[in-house]
Automatic annotation (TrEMBL):
SUPFAM superfamilies associated with the record: Arginase/deacetylase
Taxonomic superkingdom: Bacteria
Name the record gives this protein: Acetoin utilization deacetylase AcuC
Keywords from the UniProt entry: Hydrolase, Metal-binding, Zinc
Cofactor: Zn(2+)
Amino acid sequence: MKIYSHEKQKLHKPKSYFSRGQMRQPQEMPERLTELLKAPETMGLKVTTAKEIGIEPILAVHDFDYVEFLKHGYEEWMALDEEMGEEIQTTIYVPNNNSGLGILAKAAMYQADGSAPIGKHSWTSIYWSAQTALNAADSLLDDEAEQNDIQICLTRPAGHHARKNAAGGFCYLNNAAIIAEHLRQKFKKIAIIDTDMHHGQGIQEIFYDRKDVLYTSVHGSPINFYPVVAGHEHEKGHGEGYGYNINFPMPHGTDEVGFFNYVDKSISNVKLFNPDVIIHVLGFDVYKDDPQAKCNVSTQGFKTLAQKLKALNKPMIVLVEGGYCIEKLDENLQAFLSGLISE
């Protein structure tokens, strides 16, 4: 088992978070990564500092103009003559029939909601989050990788809500999609199993018409809950991808037993697909005391989850994404890691 991270992921510090009719306290903060890094240290596990893989795998998934906006938009924002605030943020979302003339129009094209502001150092963290994930993918592309190798990526900001050309849900670059595409250099079939509290509509959208990447997600029902417009059971894929998109929306208030009933169904589909590699989007926001939780998973539950995934006996990359009960991230990650280590 290898664990990857990078200190530059802490540079992104959102100052605004507009959601459900009001401005809220930002939840996707640098302190999350600080707490996550405590877990391997306590357990005596080495964390490898990610090296730079490059921009090419990112551009294999995301539109060039969108990546340019993420990288250079802040400079254009700050160059305006009027006071615009310390980060790019807009309440306008018009992705179509938008010429993109001016930074406000670009923001209206590329920021899908009020939870993905862009500050001075945001691009640096966004980039190194993707690079951290790519390090794990490159490790599996190595011919000497073991058959059941497991890679853990402590990443922020997260990625599964990011679309090909839009940020949202605290996400900017879709790490799961980027590494799935990168892994296709060697592996024919990739399965993405997502157990974050929220549906990863970005992953779904990117692979919706493909059968080489299975996406299965266990998440809170999107009815009046983010991302609200995707994640329903009837969304099964399109064209040759039909049947390769499988959603398990949980009723709000689902208990731990119910959560694992859905997880077991998701795992059954992964077994049937028989992938060469598994990507697990892990969200600690299913934890019972998380401010985003709509279900009740205990700390011990994360150990059980890890054991279930390990039992698939496949090469696996774990992307640690959601989780906003900061004071429990260390303990919950320790539980998950212990499940991977235990026989």
